[in-house]
């Protein structure tokens, strides 16, 4: 790499000697010579100069006056003051003014000149690289602190925070000195024990990068869903876990809204039939563990076509909404499910330890419907009630049996329910 040297000396002879010495040196120097400093500012702004050799004695003043201008315009350009006489006081003034070295023409030789210039150029290059590295680190830290994503570095042995960005301060609503005494366990309930933490560390180490979803505890104790990416990094002889993550609460909300649109009946605001097989399976397993009863009932509004024909479809729609409200008023437990199967058919999935209680809910719906719906209608139902840990039952099979029982209710005169129990399956 060629280094550009600017020589400012009013002596043509000295300029020629300096240029010849530097041009013949083993180092690659490109030399620019000027007899006076009037063009110094323009040169420094237009050309990258690695080092300036400036004579102390100049026609319009001494070279020390130019030092501050050089430092202001090009702070990582080296400056060597050259003088025709050696003087310790002058050398002291030169170094105070900011020169990087001092050269007396009395000691002038090619080896001394090239050695001093090379040392100054090398020194200023290191300073410049160090400054650039610090500036890049400062810029990177600014970017990291201003990103809305959380960035956390933890000790894999203790899970304590080593460093983090300001997003974590904002999220926890705590100053940095408080967060530094905390660990990943303080912001997440993801791990119930240190053994689980160490298993996680091993998983990340093997995977290189490990992406997962979890909930983090905000400063106000609310839980916020996050997608985190974790990697295992070695810096020197020390290992660290680096977490970076984004708040996905809005994404989860959109997903929930889309799921609602996909699984909700727009007229009655009940669930539709989508996904009921999985829900039935989940409830069935849960109830089996408690040795409880599960009941699936299929309801149908009697003579619904006549309602539409006599009163119009708007009234028919209102009847459907009113019947949905009747079911809601009687089927209220968290695990209970009410769904519109399609048309005037509805599905109810309920569970309890008491079979009679489940049967009673089905009968109450049939009894209450004519009193709550206008114009007055009756409903029929077919149901199956089984002890979940006694019988293997799928949603499809339960629905088929309930549908057959609904047919029997219609055939027997409507406005009633017909049941099957595990004893008959």
TrEMBL record:
Enzyme class: transferase
Stored SUPFAM superfamilies: CheY-like, Nucleotide cyclase, PYP-like sensor domain (PAS domain)
Keyword Phosphoprotein (UniProt): yes
GO MF: diguanylate cyclase activity
Domain spans labelled Response regulatory: 4-120
EC number, as in UniProt: 2.7.7.65
InterPro entries: CheY-like_superfamily (IPR011006), Diguanylate_Cyclase (IPR050469), GGDEF_dom (IPR000160), Nucleotide_cyclase (IPR029787), PAS-like_dom_sf (IPR035965), Rev_trsase/Diguanyl_cyclase (IPR043128), Sig_transdc_resp-reg_receiver (IPR001789)
Record flagged with keyword Ubl conjugation: no
Domain GGDEF: 292-422
NCBIfam families on file: GGDEF (TIGR00254)
Protein name in UniProt: diguanylate cyclase
Organism: Catenovulum sediminis
């Amino acid at each position: 790499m060629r280094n550009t040297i600017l020589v400012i000396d009013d002596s043509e002879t000295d300029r020629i000697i300096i240029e010849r010495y530097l041009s013949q040196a083993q180092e690659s120097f490109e030399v620019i010579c000027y007899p006076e400093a009037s063009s110094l500012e323009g040169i420094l702004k237009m050309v990258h100069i690695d080092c300036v050799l400036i004579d102390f004695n100049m026609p319009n003043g001494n070279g020390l006056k130019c030092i501050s201008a050089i430092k202001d315009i090009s702070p990582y350009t080296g400056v060597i003051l050259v003088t025709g006489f050696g003087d310790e006081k002058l050398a002291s003034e030169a170094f105070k003014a900011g020169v990087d070295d001092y050269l007396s023409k009395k000691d002038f030789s090619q080896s001394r000149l090239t050695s001093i210039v090379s040392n100054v150029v090398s020194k200023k290059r290191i300073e410049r690289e160090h400054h650039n590295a610090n500036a890049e680190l400062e810029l990177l830290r600014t970017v990291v602190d201003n990103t809305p994503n959380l960035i956390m570095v933890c000790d894999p042995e203790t899970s304590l925070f080593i460093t983090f960005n300001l997003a974590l301060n904002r999220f926890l609503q705590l100053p940095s000195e408080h967060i530094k005494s905390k660990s990943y366990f303080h912001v997440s309930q993801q791990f119930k024990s240190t053994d689980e933490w160490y298993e996680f560390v091993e998983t990340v180490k093997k995977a290189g990068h490990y992406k997962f979803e979890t909930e983090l505890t905000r400063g106000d104790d609310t839980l916020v869903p996050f997608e985190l990416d974790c990697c295992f990094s070695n810096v020197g002889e020390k290992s660290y876990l680096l977490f970076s993550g984004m708040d996905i609460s809005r994404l989860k909300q959109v997903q929930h809204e889309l799921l609602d649109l996909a699984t909700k009946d727009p007229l009655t605001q009940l669930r539709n039939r989508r996904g009921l097989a999985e829900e039935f399976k989940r409830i069935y397993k849960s109830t089996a563990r408690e040795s409880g009863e599960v009941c699936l009932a299929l309801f149908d509004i009697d003579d619904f076509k006549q309602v539409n024909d006599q009163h119009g479809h708007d009234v028919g729609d209102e009847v459907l909404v009113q019947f949905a409200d009747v079911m809601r008023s009687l089927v209220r437990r968290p695990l209970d499910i009410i769904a519109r199967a399609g048309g005037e058919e509805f599905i109810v999935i309920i569970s309890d330890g008491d079979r009679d209680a489940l049967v009673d809910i089905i009968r109450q719906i049939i009894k209450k419907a004519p009193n709550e719906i206008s114009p007055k209608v009756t409903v029929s139902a077919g149901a199956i009630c089984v002890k979940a840990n006694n019988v293997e039952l799928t949603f499809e099979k339960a629905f088929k049996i309930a549908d057959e029982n609904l047919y029997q209710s219609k055939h027997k005169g409507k406005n009633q329910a017909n049941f099957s129990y595990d004893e008959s399956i």
